[in-house]
Design brief:
Layout (H helix, E strand, L loop, with lengths): L3 E5 L6 H12 L3 H14 L6 E7 L4 E9 L5 H12 L9 E9 L8 H11 L5 E7 L4 H8 L3 E7 L8 E7 L5
Parallel strand pairs: 4-5
Antiparallel strand pairs: 1-2, 2-3, 3-4, 5-7, 6-7
Helix pairs in contact: 1-2
């Protein structure tokens, strides 16, 4: 396993590299990547948005995470709010740091890189809690989130044009170690 360093990354400048990671890790096609490129660049302009990258010694991006303080006016919040309200958990949308994307190349998964990315980015959050959405089902990602203290707030959650249902999860900060 190559040495991997986690630290700040200019995600706007490296958006295509990051989306290549996401495409491999998440199984995205070229059309989906093109749409997500515009979304990522828009998100990076929101107040408080920040990103971390996981890079090998030669500078290759093998993972990334980005997030921002939640705003009920954002698209993601407007989609998940009815599901959370139905379960009495919509207060989590306030004063939370959202993990918008977290992806690690398949060959680098299982080496605690995702854990390092999410804990390091949430350690810098001023909000008292974090929220995210993940594909609903038993997966390494969901097991990681549960191990870090995330609990299911609503499931199944259906996003427009997403084939699979998601779970919305939340955890108090700092995350468990």
């Amino acid at each position: 396993m190559e040495n991997v360093v986690v630290g700040p990354v200019d995600l706007g400048a490296r958006v295509d590299e990051a989306l290549a990671v996401q495409a491999l890790a998440f199984g995205l096609g070229p059309g989906e990547v093109a749409i997500r490129r515009q979304i990522v660049l828009r998100h990076l302009n929101y107040p408080g948005a920040r990103a971390l990258g996981a890079q090998t010694d030669d500078g290759r991006l093998v993972g990334f995470v980005y997030g921002l303080p939640n705003d009920r006016g954002h698209w993601w919040s407007s989609v998940v709010q009815p599901y959370l309200r139905q379960r009495g958990t919509d207060g989590w949308l306030d004063d939370s740091f959202v993990i918008t994307e977290l992806h690690v190349l398949p060959d680098f998964q299982g080496h605690r890189i995702g854990r390092r990315l999410i804990t390091e980015i949430t350690d810098t959050a001023t909000e008292p809690r974090s929220i995210l959405s993940a594909i609903d089902g038993d997966s390494p990602a969901r097991r990681l989130y549960h191990a870090l203290g995330y609990q299911d707030l609503a499931r199944p959650v259906h996003f427009p044009s997403a084939a699979r249902p998601y779970a919305v999860m939340g955890a108090p900060l700092p995350l468990l170690r």
